[in-house]
Specification:
Elements lengths: L6 H12 L8 E6 L4 E6 L10 E4 L2 E4 L7 H5 L8 H11 L5
Antiparallel strand pairs: 1-2, 3-4
Length: 98
């Protein structure tokens, strides 16, 4: 097994290398599970209101490349809360191309 790495120190190192050109702050998220840990830095474009991360008591979903036509495919007009998890579970049950 590998060593345990502190998510805050990883995020600080990533901030140094990926600081946005326009000076906008990056938000950070550490996701941990039994198999792995993931540190994500996010910057949302101006006017972008759809969350790239979603979670509930059964799981989580991260949209590294947001499925912009996903709400239309799933019949959800605005994305809304819980959309990413619904999309992932729907695609798991009935795979289709977005």
């Amino acid at each position: 097994m590998g060593e345990t790495v502190d998510a805050a120190s990883v995020a600080a190192k990533l901030h140094g290398g990926f600081a946005p050109v326009d000076g906008s702050p990056l938000s950070q998220r550490a996701i941990r599970c039994a198999a792995a840990s993931l540190v994500v830095l996010e910057i949302l474009g101006r006017g972008w209101r759809l969350a790239p991360f979603d979670e509930d008591d059964r799981g989580w979903a991260l949209a590294a490349d947001y499925p912009v036509n996903g709400p239309r495919v799933m019949g959800v007009p605005d994305g809304g809360d819980g959309f990413l998890l619904s999309l992932c579970r729907g695609l798991q049950a009935e795979p289709r191309q977005l």
